[in-house]
Amino acid sequence: MLLSLMNQPMNAHDENSCKIDRRVIKAIIIDMITAKYDTSAISIEWTISELLRHPRIMKHVQDELERVIGMNRMVEETDLANLTYLGWVIKESFRLHPVAPFLVPRESMEDIEINGYYIPKKSRVMINYWAIGRDPYVWSDNVKEFYLERFINNNIDLKEHDFQLIPFGSGRRGCPGLQLGLTTVTYVLAQLLHCFDWVLPNGMLPNDLDMSEKFGLSMPRAKHLLAMPTYRLLG
Ligand code: HEM
């Protein structure tokens, strides 16, 4: 598809605008690859960490996978829409462990006053999404708990409508890979949890798992997760 745009102006209404050449195509592909791998891997690692800390929730996820898919075949992409409980787990994991804690910096286009704060035009604006995910005024007092029930009986979704849960950002600069990223994370998690049982190494107890974050533009675990799988499907 990108090749079919080769040598076309970026703005169809302006012949003199920058042309899409090999260099631009290469930059777009590199952007997509780098934006995809780390984000998906970080999300998967945090979610499995939370499940290892909460064996009861891990068991519910595996029960759902067993009920929806059975134990004789592997998860397929068409199964993902039926994994409601796993969907709540992923939302809760994104609430506590956003991949991009400050999203991407914005610049204000106009002077504006919000809640008594004056923000001049052309200010750099950072959105502390990490703090929104842990704000008791937004999520109630059990904000530090991994508590999926907060998503039952409401329509809070990850698709930029609900500003308390925007792990893919929002608006014009929101993540263009939302659908692909969410499908990848759900698919990989479903396969890892369906095919394998997971335990912490050396008899480590769930509460002893170190959940420290490495703070930066993205927010992975400070130390990679170490966990041991055992195959669980039949045949
Ligand atoms: C779990 C997976 C992913 C997460 C959590 C994620 C999260 C984000 C976030 C928070 C932003 C900044 C949005 C904002 O500030 O409003 C972003 C931007 C971006 N993402 Fe993703 N992303 C994921 C997967 C992907 C994938 C699969 C692709 C492409 C194949 C992708 C491509 C991009 C690009 C190109 C931008 C920059 C957009 C811009 O600046 O206009 N992301 N992503």
UniProtKB/TrEMBL annotation:
Chain sites annotated for binding heme: 175
Keywords: Heme, Iron, Membrane, Metal-binding, Monooxygenase, Oxidoreductase
Protein name: Cytochrome P450
InterPro entries: Cyt_P450 (IPR001128), Cyt_P450_CS (IPR017972), Cyt_P450_E_grp-I (IPR002401), Cyt_P450_sf (IPR036396)
GO (cellular component) term, any one: membrane
GO molecular function: heme binding; iron ion binding; monooxygenase activity; oxidoreductase activity, acting on paired donors, with incorporation or reduction of molecular oxygen
Cellular compartment(s): Membrane
Lineage: Eukaryota, Viridiplantae, Streptophyta, Embryophyta, Tracheophyta
Domain of life: Eukaryota
